[in-house]
C-alpha cells in the first residue's frame, strides 16, 4: 500500500500493546491460583479447580480454585477476626491504607490494564484510560471518607463483615466500587469475583498484601455460582453487596429474607437514550456510540433503547449507520480498536438469538459491514430500527452491542416510552434546550440521568437504580451509608411477645341506655370506607371491655388503597413548603385533641395517663420534626473531575406500604407516615393490629388538615396477612414493616417480585420515644431515592 493510499483512506494499522509482563505474571501462576484468605493464597479445601478462558481466542488463561463451603467459612472467619481491630483503627490509619492501595494501583496501572483486557476481552484503550484510573480514583476518594468518618458519620458504625459479588463486565472497576467504601468505613470484606474474570481481583490481592493491608481485612474467594450462593447464605455475614443480573438479584433477595443482612443490589437495565429534534445530532451520534458499543454493549446502564424525535429520525439513523461502518472490532490489545470480544460463547449465542427474535417481530436489522477477527467470540455493532415498545428486544436486556430504536413526537410521549420498562437504572437526554432536558430528566424513572452525555462515572457521585434495577447507591456520601448502620439501633433487643389480644368479657345488662354503636371504617382516597368483606374485629381493653370495632381489611381493600395512592401523585410534585405547612397543620389539629388521643391510648393499652400524654406530645413533636425537614431535606451538587456538575436530587419513592409496630399505637404510626409524606410519598398504612383505634381516630385529623385525598390511606386488620398482599403488589414501590421477625422475613421474601425497597426491624424493638432511634435522617434516607443528574458544561 502506498503512502498516498493511506492518506486517502485514513485507515489504521494494528497497534498492539505489549503483553509480556502480563503473560509472565500468568506464567508464574501456571500451577493455578488459590483463594486469598487471611493475607495469603491458599488452595481450595476440596482440591477442586476450574479453567478460565481468553475471550478473544478461546484459549485457557489460568486455573482457578473453586470455592466451597470450607473456603467460604475460612474467609468469613478471617474477616470476622480482623474486622473489629480494623474498625477500631483511627480513621487516619485506614485512610493511609486506602491511599497506599490507590498508589499501588497507579504504579501497576499498565499491568492491571493488560490483564483486564486479556481476561475480559474489552479494548486496552478502555481498561487503560477508563477502568484502572477510575478504580484508583475510588480508593483516593474513599481514603478521604475514612479520614473524616468520625465527624461526618459520627452517629454510625461499620456494618461488619461484608460479602461482595461482582460481575464480569467491569471486573477491576467493580472491585474498587465495592471494596474501597467497605474498607474505608471499617468493614472487612469477602469478595467473590465473576468466574469468567477473576484475574485482576487476584492481582489486586497480591498488590494489597504488598501494600501492607492487614491480613483478613480483604479476602477473595473464586468460584462459580454455587460459591456466591454459599457467601449469600452464610450466617456470619452482615451485608451482601451484589452487582449482576436482575434474575440473580431476585434470588438473593429471597435467600437473605429475614436474615438481618443489609442488602444492596445493582442489577440490569434497559436505559433510554432520548434525542430531541434540537439536539446536536453529530454529538448525539457519538453519544450513542459510547452508550451502546462501549465495552461491546456489556454495560448494565448501556443506552440500548434509542428514542429519537420523529422529525430528525431519518437523519439521525443515516448518520449513525455511517458512523457504525467506521467502528473497528479486533483483538483487545490493539490500541486502535473500538470493540473487543464478547465475554464467552454462551453470551454470544444469547445475543444472536435475541437479535433473530427481534427481526422476527418486525425490526429492521442493520449491522456494520466490517471484518471480525477469526476465532474467539466477536459480534458486529448492530442497530435494530422500527422496534415496537413491546418487542422482546425493547424490553429485555440484551447485554451486547445491539441498539434498538423507536421514534416519538412529543416530550410527553418520550417520557412515557422511556419509562415503559421494568428497569430504572440510567438514561440519557439530548437537547440544546436545557430547560427541556432538565424537565425530562426529572420525570424519568432512573437513578442516573446524563444530559448531553452518557456513561459518565465518578467516585464522588452515587450510582444505582430504581424498580428492577435494584436499590442502594455506590459512590459518594450516599454510597457510604450502605456500609454503615445507626449507632442508635446497635443495642436493640428482640421485641417482647405482645400479649394475646384481649377477649371481650360478657357484661350483664342493666337499664342504662346502651352506647351508640360505632365501627371505625377504613380510610381510602380521603373517605371513610366499609371493608370489602364486611367483617370487623372487636378491640378490647386489657380488662376485656369492648372499646370499639375496626374493619377487617382484605386484598381488595389494599387494591383500592393503592389505586387511591397512585391517583394522588400530584403530592410528589407539591412544593416542599406546601408539604411542610400541611404537616404543621396536622400537628396543630392533633394538639387540639391531645386529651382525647391520650385517653384512647390508656383505654387500649392500659398505659398510665402520664405515659399516654407523653406519647401524644411526642407524636406532635415528631410531626413538627418532619414539617421542619420537609423543605430542608435537600439534594447536593457533586463536582466530579470534569467540566460539569452532578445534581444529587432526593426523589419520593412513590407508593409505600407501612406495617406499623404493635407498640406505641399513635407515635409508631406517626413516626413512619410522617417522613414518607414529608418527602412526597403516598402511603397505605396498616395500624397496630392490637391497638388500631389511635390510627382510625387520626383520620378525622387528616380530614380537617388539607391533606389531599389518597396521600394517606389506612387499612386495618391482620398485620401479617395485609403485609403479604402489600409485599406482592407490583404497584407498591416500597414497604416498611415493623413487628415480628416472621413479618420481616415475609416482607423481604415476597418483595422480590418487583424488587421493591424494604425497611424492616427483624423483630427488634425500637424505643419510639428516643429521638435518635425513632426519627430523623435515618428514616428520611429510606424515604427517598437519590437521582444523580449529570450536566456537563462548556464547549
From TrEMBL:
Q: Which UniProt keywords apply?
A: Metal-binding, NADP, Oxidation, Oxidoreductase, Potassium
Domain named Aldehyde dehydrogenase is located at: 41-487, 537-761
User: Per the record's keyword annotation, is Oxidoreductase included, yes or no?
Assistant: yes
InterPro entries, from UniProt? Ald_DH/histidinol_DH, Ald_DH_C, Ald_DH_CS_GLU, Ald_DH_N, Aldehyde_DH, Aldehyde_DH_dom
Q: Name one GO molecular function term.
A: oxidoreductase activity, acting on the aldehyde or oxo group of donors, NAD or NADP as acceptor
Q: Name one Pfam family in it.
A: Aldedh
Matches recorded under PROSITE patterns: ALDEHYDE_DEHYDR_GLU
| Active site, renumbered | 266
Protein family (similarity comment): Belongs to the aldehyde dehydrogenase family.
This protein is called: Aldehyde dehydrogenase
Amino acid at each position: 500500500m502506498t503512502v498516498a493510499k493511506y492518506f486517502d483512506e485514513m485507515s489504521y494499522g494494528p497497534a498492539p500493546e505489549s503483553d509480556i509482563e502480563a503473560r509472565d505474571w500468568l506464567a508464574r501462576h501456571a500451577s493455578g491460583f488459590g483463594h486469598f484468605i487471611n493475607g495469603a493464597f491458599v488452595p481450595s479445601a476440596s482440591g477442586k479447580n476450574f479453567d478460565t478462558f481468553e475471550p478473544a481466542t478461546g484459549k485457557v488463561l489460568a486455573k482457578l480454585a473453586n470455592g466451597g463451603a470450607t473456603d467460604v467459612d475460612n474467609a468469613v472467619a478471617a474477616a470476622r477476626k480482623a474486622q473489629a481491630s480494623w474498625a477500631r483503627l483511627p480513621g487516619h490509619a485506614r485512610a493511609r491504607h486506602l491511599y497506599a492501595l490507590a498508589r499501588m494501583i497507579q504504579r501497576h496501572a499498565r499491568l492491571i490494564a493488560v490483564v483486564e483486557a486479556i481476561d475480559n476481552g474489552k479494548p486496552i484503550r478502555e481498561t487503560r484510560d477508563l477502568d484502572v484510573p477510575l478504580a484508583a480514583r475510588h480508593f483516593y476518594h474513599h481514603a478521604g471518607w475514612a479520614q473524616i468518618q468520625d465527624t461526618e458519620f459520627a452517629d454510625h458504625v461499620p456494618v461488619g463483615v461484608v460479602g461482595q459479588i461482582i460481575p464480569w463486565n467491569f471486573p477491576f472497576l467493580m472491585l474498587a466500587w465495592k471494596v474501597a467504601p467497605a474498607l474505608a468505613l471499617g468493614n472487612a470484606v469477602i469478595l467473590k469475583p465473576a468466574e469468567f474474570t477473576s484475574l485482576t481481583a487476584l492481582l489486586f490481592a497480591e498488590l494489597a498484601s504488598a501494600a501492607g493491608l492487614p491480613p483478613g481485612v480483604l479476602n477473595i474467594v473464586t468460584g462459580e455460582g454455587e460459591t456466591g450462593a454459599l457467601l449469600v447464605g452464610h450466617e456470619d455475614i452482615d451485608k451482601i453487596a451484589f452487582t449482576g443480573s436482575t434474575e440473580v438479584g431476585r434470588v438473593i433477595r429471597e435467600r437473605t429474607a429475614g436474615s438481618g443482612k443489609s442488602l444492596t443490589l445493582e442489577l440490569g437495565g434497559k436505559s433510554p437514550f432520548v434525542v430531541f429534534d434540537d439536539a446536536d445530532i453529530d454529538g448525539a451520534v457519538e453519544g450513542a456510540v459510547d452508550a451502546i458499543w462501549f465495552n461491546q454493549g456489556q454495560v448494565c446502564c448501556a443506552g440500548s433503547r434509542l428514542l429519537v424525535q420523529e422529525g430528525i429520525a431519518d437523519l439521525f439513523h443515516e448518520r449513525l449507520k455511517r458512523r457504525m461502518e467506521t467502528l473497528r472490532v479486533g483483538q483487545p490489545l490493539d490500541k486502535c480498536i473500538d470493540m473487543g470480544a464478547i465475554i464467552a460463547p454462551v453470551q454470544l449465542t444469547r445475543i444472536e438469538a435475541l437479535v433473530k427474535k427481534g427481526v422476527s417481530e418486525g425490526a429492521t436489522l442493520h449491522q456494520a459491514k466490517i471484518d471480525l477477527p477469526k476465532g474467539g467470540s466477536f459480534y458486529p455493532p448492530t442497530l435494530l430500527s422500527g422496534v415496537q415498545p413491546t418487542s422482546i428486544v425493547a424490553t429485555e436486556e440484551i447485554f451486547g452491542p445491539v441498539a434498538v430504536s423507536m421514534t416519538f413526537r412529543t416530550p410527553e410521549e418520550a417520557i412515557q416510552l422511556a419509562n415503559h420498562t421494568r428497569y430504572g437504572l440510567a438514561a440519557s437526554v439530548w437537547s440544546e434546550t436545557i430547560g427541556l432536558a432538565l424537565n425530562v430528566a426529572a420525570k424519568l424513572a432512573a437513578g442516573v440521568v446524563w444530559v448531553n452525555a452518557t456513561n459518565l462515572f465518578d467516585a464522588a457521585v452515587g450510582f444505582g437504580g430504581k424498580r428492577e434495577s435494584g436499590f442502594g447507591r455506590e459512590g459518594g456520601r450516599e454510597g457510604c451509608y450502605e456500609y454503615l448502620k445507626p449507632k442508635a439501633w446497635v443495642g436493640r433487643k428482640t421485641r417482647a411477645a405482645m400479649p394475646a389480644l384481649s377477649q371481650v368479657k360478657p357484661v350483664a345488662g342493666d337499664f342504662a341506655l346502651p352506647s351508640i354503636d360505632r365501627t371505625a371504617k377504613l380510610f381510602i382516597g380521603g373517605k371513610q370506607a366499609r371493608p370489602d368483606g364486611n367483617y370487623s374485629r372487636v378491640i378490647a381493653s386489657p380488662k376485656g371491655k369492648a372499646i370499639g370495632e375496626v374493619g377487617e381489611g382484605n386484598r381488595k381493600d389494599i387494591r383500592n388503597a393503592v389505586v387511591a395512592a397512585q391517583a394522588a401523585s400530584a403530592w410528589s410534585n407539591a412544593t416542599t413548603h406546601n408539604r411542610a405547612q400541611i404537616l404543621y397543620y396536622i400537628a396543630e389539629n392533633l394538639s387540639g385533641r391531645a386529651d382525647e388521643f391520650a385517653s384512647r391510648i390508656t383505654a387500649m393499652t392500659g398505659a398510665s395517663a402520664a405515659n399516654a400524654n407523653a406519647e401524644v406530645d411526642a407524636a406532635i413533636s415528631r410531626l413538627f420534626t418532619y414539617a421542619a425537614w420537609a423543605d430542608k431535606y435537600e439534594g447536593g451538587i457533586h463536582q466530579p473531575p470534569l467540566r460539569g456538575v452532578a445534581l444529587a436530587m432526593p426523589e419520593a419513592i412513590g407508593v409505600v406500604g407501612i406495617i406499623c409496630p404493635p407498640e406505641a399505637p399513635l407515635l409508631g404510626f406517626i413516626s413512619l407516615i410522617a417522613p414518607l409524606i414529608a418527602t412526597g410519598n403516598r402511603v397505605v398504612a396498616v395500624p397496630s393490629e392490637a391497638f388500631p383505634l389511635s390510627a382510625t381516630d387520626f383520620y378525622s385529623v387528616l380530614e380537617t388538615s388539607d391533606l389531599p385525598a389518597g396521600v394517606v390511606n389506612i387499612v386495618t386488620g391482620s398485620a401479617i396477612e395485609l403485609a403479604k398482599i402489600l409485599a406482592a403488589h407490583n404497584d407498591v414501590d416500597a414497604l416498611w414493616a415493623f413487628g415480628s421477625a416472621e413479618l420481616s422475613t415475609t416482607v423481604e421474601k415476597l418483595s422480590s417480585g418487583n424488587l421493591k425497597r424494604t425497611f424492616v426491624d427483624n423483630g427488634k424493638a425500637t424505643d419510639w420515644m428516643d429521638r435518635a432511634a425513632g426519627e430523623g435522617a435515618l428514616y428520611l434516607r429510606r424515604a427517598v431515592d437519590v437521582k444523580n443528574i449529570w450536566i456537563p458544561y462548556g464547549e
